[in-house]
Amino acid sequence: HYPLRRQRQMCIRDRSFTVIFLSATTDSPTNIEITVKSLDINNSDLIRKLIDEFDRLNGVIHVECSIKTNTLMIIYDDSYSLSEENIKNIFSKWGCKEIDIFYSLIN
């Protein structure tokens, strides 16, 4: 029963990844969720590059992306610095010209 249950959860997680973002739980009350929308987020190679780039930054807790919604989500600890300019520079490095950035405080 346990292996089947785990496999089923993985299928749901994989299917959800292309449609909506999974919620990430964190312990710190100062975590920020940054959602970046760009029509240039349209292929898996670019997504891998963006996720790898943001994963290397200090304070980043979680990164995920959706081709279906052309959206990247970053959760990071606000005690570290992740400026809008840094975000724009990373997206520009990988060829994304127009981006919209939205912030929200999460717990």
Can you tell me about this structure?
By secondary structure, the chain is of the alpha+beta class. The protein is 36% helix and 26% strand. It has helices at residues 2-17, 44-55, 84-93, and strands spanning 31-37, 60-66, 71-77, 100-106. The chain has a four-stranded antiparallel β-sheet, with helices on one face. 15% of the residues are buried.
Structural class: alpha+beta
Approximately how much helix is present in the residues? 25-40%
CA-CA gap between termini: 33 Å
Low-confidence stretches: 1-23
Average pLDDT works out at 80
- Secondary structure tally, helices: 3
Radius of gyration: 15 Å
Q: Order of strands across the biggest sheet?
A: 2-3-1-4
Main β-sheet: number of strands, strand sense, barrel status? 4 strands, antiparallel
List the helices and strands and how they pair.
Layout: H1 2-17, E1 31-37, H2 44-55, E2 60-66, E3 71-77, H3 84-93, E4 100-106
Antiparallel strand pairs: 1-3, 1-4, 2-3
Features of this protein?
107 residues, alpha+beta, 4-stranded antiparallel sheet, 36% helix
What would a concise description of this structure say?
The chain has 107 residues and is α+β, with helices and mostly antiparallel strands.
